[in-house]
Amino acid sequence: MTPAARIRCVSDASEISLIDQLEKVPPRVRPLVKAALDSVRKAAPRSAEEVPYRSVQPRSKSTMWKLVRFTAAGGNVIGIGTFPAHATIWFYRGRELDDGSGLLHGSGKDSRFITLLSVADAERPAVKSLVRKAFKLGPPA
């Protein structure tokens, strides 16, 4: 079974599909987004659901284009988005994650993120470890 087949995709006809969004992602970061998706799909539990955001490319280059979120137990656990020059995996409860790798950044109340500048960044074992930890922690209360 492929990693994508393990995770149920939740969408309806009114949503912009993830495939449609990926076609519009700048070519420079498209491989980074695909690598992030692959890493999360491989490390996420079978019970995870993949939910595309109903979003379009932002007008501002400093605004993240949120593409998809992964849910479990009725709440958001991880999201994937992109900027013109890099992709991002963010963790809704990232502040609570044990990050011995030093990959997590951010100073928000709860969430933290990983910046992906190359496909290899998304394929690091530490990224997959953080994904597994995030799903064990679950969604925000």
N-to-C series of helices and strands: HEHHEEEEEHH
Spatial extent as radius of gyration: 14 Å
Instruction: Please describe the biggest sheet, giving its number of strands, its sense, and whether it closes into a barrel.
Output: 6 strands, mixed
Number of strands: 6
Tally the helices. 5
How far is it from the N-terminal to the C-terminal residue, by CA? 32 Å
Query: Spatial order of the strands in the main sheet?
Result: 1-2-3-4-5-6
Residue share in helix: 25-40%
Structural class: alpha+beta
Strand content: 15-25%
User: What is the average of the pLDDT values?
Assistant: 88
Principal-axis shape equals: globular
Q: Which blocks of ≥5 consecutive residues have pLDDT under 50?
A: 1-6
Explain how this protein is built.
This protein has 141 residues and is of the alpha+beta class. It is 30% helix and 23% strand. The protein has 5 helices and 6 strands. The protein has a 6-stranded mixed β-sheet with strand order 1-2-3-4-5-6. Helix 3 packs across helix 5. It starts with a helix and ends with a helix. The N terminus is likely disordered.
